[in-house]
Design goal:
The protein is 37% helix and 22% strand. It has 10 helices and 7 strands. A 7-stranded mixed beta sheet has the order 3-2-1-4-5-7-6, with helices on both faces.
Length: 238
């Protein structure tokens, strides 16, 4: 078993306690990720201390700004190896989570983790956000949408906001360039009927990695024409 004291201490600052069982699940997840990473490129970060800070703690920094208690519905767009969605599910088991990604191999791995950890209230969805955003069972169905995807913010807003309920929240995990992207996203936010609630900039513990959480409210329904067809948001950002 690895040492998770940094994560436990970080969460305790925000009133979140973690059980031994949850720590065991995080450790199993880590071991499965490292093993699978030998044959499938899940993450370039593999050393435990780095994963703990840059993946696990980074995933839960949302507690700085959002009340994660209760059975809220959450979609993680571009989940990759499961960050932040899988970590949030383990730490906040009452969440109902959809892990969304365009690469089936990643989701196959995540389904193996879900099975190994006996998790319920979590599922995977394979597809393109431009298409899934028009599926009635997903469009405007989520209390929260999170993404650590690499797309620029105007593109990310078009891909993510259609999933969010009116009155719901979209959180973009960004690097220290978040404020620059924010300036370029004003038109997209206007078109998609969303607005900035808060920008939270900080450094991850025991690192020099700056994180910028951009938190948006969904003020009313997105126009039905959004998201546009696959490829268009990135080629012609709002």
């Amino acid at each position: 078993m690895h040492d998770y004291s940094k994560l436990i201490s970080y969460l305790s600052e925000y009133g979140v306690s973690v059980s031994d069982d949850q720590i065991k699940k995080l450790d199993t997840y880590y071991e499965m990720m490292i093993e699978t990473n030998k044959s499938l490129n899940l993450t370039a970060i593999t050393e435990f201390d780095d994963v703990l800070i840059k993946h696990y703690i980074d995933s839960v920094t949302i507690v700085r700004d959002i009340d994660m208690s209760g059975n809220k519905s959450l979609i993680d767009v571009g989940t990759g190896a499961g960050f932040p969605g899988m970590v949030l599910k383990i730490i906040f088991p009452e969440l109902n989570i959809t892990l969304f990604d365009s690469l089936q191999k990643r989701l196959t791995f995540l389904n193996e983790v879900i099975s190994a950890l006996n998790l319920t209230g979590i599922s995977t969805y394979h597809g393109r956000a431009e298409e899934a955003g028009h599926v009635s069972s997903m469009r405007e169905q989520y209390d929260l949408c999170v993404s650590r995807a690499v797309a620029n913010l105007p593109v990310l807003c078009e891909l993510c906001l259609p999933f969010v309920k009116t009155g719901g929240i979209f959180i973009a995990y960004k690097s220290d360039k978040g404020n620059i992207e924010l300036e370029s996203a004003s038109h997209a936010l206007s078109v998609l009927n969303a607005s900035l609630i808060k920008e939270d900039t900080f450094t991850l513990p025991d690192s020099d990695m700056v994180r910028d959480l951009l938190i948006f409210s969904k003020d009313s329904s997105c126009p039905k024409s959004y998201p546009r067809k696959p490829g268009t948001p990135s080629k012609k950002p709002l």
